[in-house]
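Risk register update: the risk of archive-format incompatibility is retired. Evidence:
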Amino acid sequence: MCTSTFEVSIAEKTCALTVKDATGTLLEDRDGWFEKDGAVGVSRKLATGERVYGLGQHTTHRLDLRGASIDLWNTDAYVDANKGYPPDAKNLYQSIPFYVALRDARAYGVFTHDTHRMHFDVGTTDGELRVTGTAMDQYLIPGPSIREVVRRYGRLTGRMPMPAPWTLGFHQSRWEGPCDGAPSDKPFCSASQIVDLAKRLRAEKIPADGVFLDIQHMRGFRTFTFDPTRFADPLDLTSKLATLGFHTHAIVDPGLKVDDGWDVYKAGVDGGFYLSDASGIPFKGEVWPGAAVFPDFSAKKTRDWWAGLSLGMADKGLSGLWIDMNEPSNFVGGTVPNTLACDGDGRKTTMAELHNAYAYYEAKATYEGMRAKLERPFLLSRAAFAGSQKYTAVWTGDAPSTWSTLQLTLPMLLHLGLSGMAFAGSDVGGYSGREESTSELFSRWMALGSVSPFFRAHAEKDAKRQEPWSFGGEAEDATRDFIGARYERMPYLYSLFHEASESGAPVLRPLVFEFQDDPKAQVTSDEAMVGPFLLVAPVLAKSDRTRAVYLPAGTWLEWSSGARFSGTATLSTDPEPFPLDALPTFVREGAIVPHTVRRQHMGESPDAPLFLDVFPGPKPSAFTLYEDDGEKSSAKTTLTLEPTADGARFAAKRSGTYAPKHEKIVVRLRGADGTVTGVKLDGKPVSFTHPDREVLVELSDRGEFTLEFAYDKAPQPNGTVKIPITVNVPAGTPTTTAIHVASSAPPPGPTPAHPHRRRRHGNARGPARRLVLLQDHPRRLAHRREGPDLRRADQPPRLRRPRRDHRERGRLGRQVPVGAEIASTAYALTLWTTPSAAKAAAASAAAAPAGCCAASSRAVAWGAASRSAASCCAATRSPASPSAPSRSPASWCGPPAAPRAGCAAAAPLPARSPPPRPRSPRARAATRRTARTPSGRGSPRAGRTCRPRRSRRRGSTENSARRSSA
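Archived output:
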């Protein structure tokens, strides 16, 4: 049998099957069917090097499933010893019998349409893939690309609807209890406390769009009810939260309390809506409310009844529902018996067949009920089957708060994405925070959550608190940065969700989805692509000091700094601990990334400016920006980027019924290192700015335009990069104590003959770069910068005189209590260095003794602004002996202290250059009196008195000696 895509041969007696694609590549080599222990199955030969992906949710810790054994049977996998599912759980919550195989870099898919329990043996012993079940109704889906296989699978089983914008934001949740009296330390126990928590999120400037109500909101754990005391007026609660920009969701469980006095239970009995035994008696299990019955969602009459109950929740102001315990879970026996009778949409069957599809039918009924009132309702489900994506998002269930679970979560989300579940996430921080629940684990999980399609922090009642502020200021700042960065990229992310709704392409993608021919991308499971352009490599190991990042072929730019890296190479950091806000992010050449300003929720500032970051490459590229009003009206803007002989051309063309309200559009061409000769808008010259390595053009909002950039396309060999510096001031630090920060990266060009000398004009003759932070006024931090400007490698660096930068001081300065922790979002300085300096700096750092307040260099550093090419560390220590007026740099620092998170162990300070001459005669006189030694020069290495730095207040010398450079 031949088709346009396949050539199929079937043996008459054995059903042995061979399939070749249009190029003649052998995709299927099946021995036929077999019977074993009353079950039937099929087996197919796996080619050497063949890869397999998908099959829903499982605990395989890698991307390629070759060698895995996977059982598909929806299960409440909580184990008390693990406080969640174990790392080797045999069964989890979502069974999706679809996989994508990659043979000789050509993809095909296989979907087994059977809801019975199934087992997949992916070549564990003899190189064959065996599927064992009850019925073998299989679909073979052609490629040749993984993208095409997933698209065709979506046509077969359905695709996700376009979600409302706010569903992509950050959500906060907690199972709280016991809630008697609504204790103040359990803020999810009552309506008023939840409103206060929402207000605190706003006060702390932590963006968020959703609040979830767990079972503590119910009256005695009865689904569709609210506690009459603590949640007496649900409509008032949802209205107050809506005023703050929050959408409210409530949990619903299928297990309904057996209570003759409860109208919901009675209606189910009267209507015959419950799963029953062979004699027609409703089965009674046990879940949170005690004795409980379970609706038969495979019957249309039951779904209609349930839809009406769901509609009633929408009438109370809820924007969505959270479906839990729907495997279905039963505290006695784990689940309901397989022998229970089911309607089967008119074809009588049992739960042995419909167990895996139980959650699918419940989601269908719930969605249809909410959809009767809401244009885009949001459903979140713990269990799922193939096709559930048409109604609900999913999360990975009761994930323990452990490092092993965090490492498992990323490949789990990647497999779900390839299985059709594009809208998936995890409980950020882990469901059951215990011993391993620390600020580090929470921050690392926040980083992963910020790039996951669904983003919610949730934990159970006995876990540690896991609100963003629960682990201290540094973790809270990291959380704020991660969430804020997600909201800034929301135009890009929202467009990816639209792509998923149309083609089924996952939002969070394994590298192999974009780089199918790359052997290493085919097995990389600890990195991911967010859409077609952004590569993220979250830090997933405890106290991780190294992070290898694999970049596929092509040129990549580190997102924040613009530092260039060649592909097909693995980058690694020096052995330094990562800061809590670390999330290595790279962008492909040719990328088009729409983003906007940071907002507190998706409904804020609908007229916010739209920024279009473009990264020209050697080939044309395109991206479709999708925008809408959150309901029906929408617009698509096709963005194209192509190289030209003297630069690049960027064009936009909008279509649709929605008119965006952008205050302005700012196009930022990144990677323009050299001279920019001009920019044209629709053929006419237009004004532009050319800050470091980029070109900015500001436009009024318009649906169609063409920009032509003319610039020197040669990349700068040693492009400068910005390095943010975080300074932690220990409690009790005197306000007069200087904070010295140094980079050991030398300037470009020849090494100076004498490190202490530099000419007043011309080339630099001093240390690479030194930054002195001064606490020169109570509750105020200031800074000054020293050292040469670093320019292009072929240009001599200029000497910059030490000066106060009032503009930067005004922007960066912030009043803080003396002794408080100054975190990255509170106080960030900028240092400039060059990538080529890393090797020399590392060598000098390794050769010199430790003990000063300096920082070593590293090739790549990751932080809120991704410190590339150099690393800076701030260490503040009191002098070892206050009576000593001046000492050498090492002794001034005092005994070596433990480095803060994100800083290296103390490394050598660069050679000290003499301070500039004080401006006033009085100050110069004071310098001569206090700083001169018999030899005429202070020598730190000889232990002699150092020259004081110039005072910030004209003519004052009192603090100069205190602030002498280390």
